[in-house]
Specification:
The longest helix is centred in the middle third of the chain and has 27 residues. About 26% of the residues have low confidence. This protein has eight helices and two strands. Strands 1-2 form a two-stranded antiparallel sheet. A hairpin with a 6-residue loop joins strand 1 and strand 2. The chain is elongated. The chain is mainly α. 53% of the residues lie in helices and 7% in strands.
């Protein structure tokens, strides 16, 4: 009986010596606080962890340092989406404070801000921003005109708007061309003409049947926004000293 036990023990020790390197858990009691190392090539089943500094930290806004607004201008499917979050020079803020609408001035400049603060450069930036927004309005008018659900009379109004927006873009370009000279009078005339073009878009919807109320343009709110931008530009143009 003792001989059989000794034989069994020898067999057990023999297999332990063979399996020692490949299966340490069989013969070696491990500390329960220790963890078994895993191969670096094995994918980790845990969620990916961010490296230090990789997680974006929320930034608190500082007074007067940044414009961060989201505007949705329009009614129903007609509208402009303006989202900005750009740090502006304090001189721009001071300049806009003297305009007809300080907030609209800032949100118009922010998407196209190039770091310049002189009056002529500010007018150039605002014309560029207004040009981009009029192009959006033109694309909207074209889309609505081509919508099969749009009735014939309303479609005609949208097509008129496309033409008026195109004329406004031409006037913006002439104003831009006059700035380097500078011909401030021409800038003023062309911007005023652009307001007339945008306003004429609304006139084309007078007398429309339901669902559009009589005399109400579906582009009215958007056009009001565009005309207000040009109005701000005109108020800044008045600040430019005219050479004598």
């Amino acid at each position: 009986m003792e001989h059989r036990s000794n034989k069994t023990m020898l067999v057990f020790l023999f297999w332990c010596s063979i399996l020692l390197n490949s299966a340490p858990a069989i013969c070696v009691a491990q500390d329960p606080n220790e963890t078994t190392p895993t191969s670096s090539n094995e994918p980790s089943p845990s969620l990916p962890q961010q490296t230090p500094g990789s997680s974006p930290k929320p930034k608190l806004p500082t007074s007067g340092s940044k414009v961060g607004l989201g505007l949705n201008i329009g009614v129903g499917p007609i509208g402009l989406n303006v989202g900005v979050g750009v740090k502006l020079d304090p001189k721009i803020k001071a300049l806009c404070a003297k305009s007809d609408d300080a907030n609209l001035c800032l949100t118009t400049i922010a998407p196209v801000y190039n770091g310049k603060t002189d009056l002529l450069s500010v007018i150039q930036m605002m014309i560029k921003a207004a040009t981009d927004q009029v192009k959006q309005a033109m694309a909207t008018a074209k889309k609505m005109a081509n919508d099969p659900r749009t009735d014939a009379k309303t479609r005609s109004g949208y097509k008129d708007c496309e033409e008026m927006y195109d004329d406004a873009l031409d006037n913006f370009q002439e104003a831009l061309d006059a700035i380097p000279i500078p011909e401030i009078g021409t800038v003023n005339i062309m911007l005023s003409a652009a307001i007339t073009d945008i306003s004429t878009c609304d006139d084309g919807f007078t007398g429309q049947p339901n669902p559009i109320p009589d005399g109400v343009s579906p582009m009215a709110k958007l056009n009001e926004h565009l005309m207000n931008i040009v109005g701000v530009m005109l108020s800044i143009v008045k600040m430019i000293p005219i050479p004598t």
